């Protein structure tokens, strides 16, 4: 069975290995690493994709621009100090009030924002824009692999784990397609249960092979398979208790980030994690300080805050990066919502982040400052943000191979990482 095809389609588990020989190959490296003392401390990049195009202007509010209030008569977020006002960041930008749980991370300089960021491609298609962002090749269709997978290939980290990259999703996301090991799962508890059931079946298969007098290493590999599954169960998914008083929301994103935290603590060799949250396509009745978008942002921020609190000092080695395919129109539409736009805001969280700052070249919201007279102009290519995380955090030095056709260079870094 083609290894990449298997990994791409294993949406989850070891129980879905279609061929008996695939499981030993996958888990053999893992088990051997454990017998040699584990994978050691790893740098981890956690990415969250806000699918559907979040409204960056109400997520990170430019309350210092009077045009903002002219363009958004019913959905604008009040200024700081007013009822339901924005959480003041720097006197010009503020967080949506539903994101107040992230304020402590801003004050401690663990949170940074990159505004007016996005793709140089002007597509307003969700499908195309998401594909371009995950492949890291805007405007180019047909790229086979994803930017996160190419980063892992370029980083050439030692002692790689089959769990080097994990997506908490039904199927492997586009960003993780490629040669480096990647798996998708939706529930860590189901994973350990299914893995245990699978290895029981596999044991019977090994015994049958021995009965046919085929003498090879499968017997030892079967033992290692059991050891690997047992080691992974150290994450104790069913009875996990977050540290430092962290409380995760009972939502898809909250559960995903909690399980990523479990994998980090379990020391299974995780280096890249992927999670996602949907529902951001707010064309109708978006709401302002309260309502549809507010509810989504509250969960989004609370999930990230719980993750950072839970990991505590471990956030020295973790960087969390958020992204969305494009932003939304600067002016609200006739349905009290917003339509597909261009520039957006990205968040970066971690102890190594030079936070407490909004990065990027903010042009403003006057008509002649907007893209096509309607959207926030993109002044920071998302590949420069990805490249800084790949280069500084994961050690992916060959940026031209990670972002083919684009001159991603250190000189373009915003400096949000130390």
Give the radius of gyration.
22 Å
CATH topology: Alkaline Phosphatase, subunit A
Uncertain stretches: 1-24, 197-222
How is the main sheet built?
9 strands, mixed
CATH class: Alpha Beta
Going by CATH, the architecture would be 3-Layer(aba) Sandwich
State the helix count.
Answer: 13
Set out the fold topology.
Blueprint: H1 3-9, H2 22-35, E1 44-50, H3 56-59, E2 60-61, H4 66-71, E3 87-88, E4 94-95, H5 103-107, E5 111-118, H6 126-135, H7 147-155, E6 165-167, E7 183-184, H8 188-211, H9 218-232, H10 252-266, E8 272-277, H11 292-311, E9 318-323, E10 344-349, E11 357-359, E12 380-381, H12 382-393, H13 399-402
Parallel strand pairs: 1-8, 1-9, 5-11, 5-12, 6-7, 6-8
Antiparallel strand pairs: 2-4, 3-4, 5-10, 9-10
Describe what you observe in this structure.
- The radius of gyration is 22 Å and the shape is globular.
- The model is unreliable at 1-24 and 197-222 (pLDDT under 50).
- The longest helix has 24 residues, at 188-211.
- It is α/β, with parallel strands linked by helices and 418 residues long.
- It has one domain (3-412): Alkaline Phosphatase, subunit A (3-Layer(aba) Sandwich), CATH 3.40.720.
- α2 (22-35) crosses α9 (218-232).
- The strands form two sheets. Strands 1, 5, 6, 7, 8, 9, 10, 11 and 12 form a nine-stranded mixed sheet that branches.
- 35% of the residues lie in helices and 12% in strands.
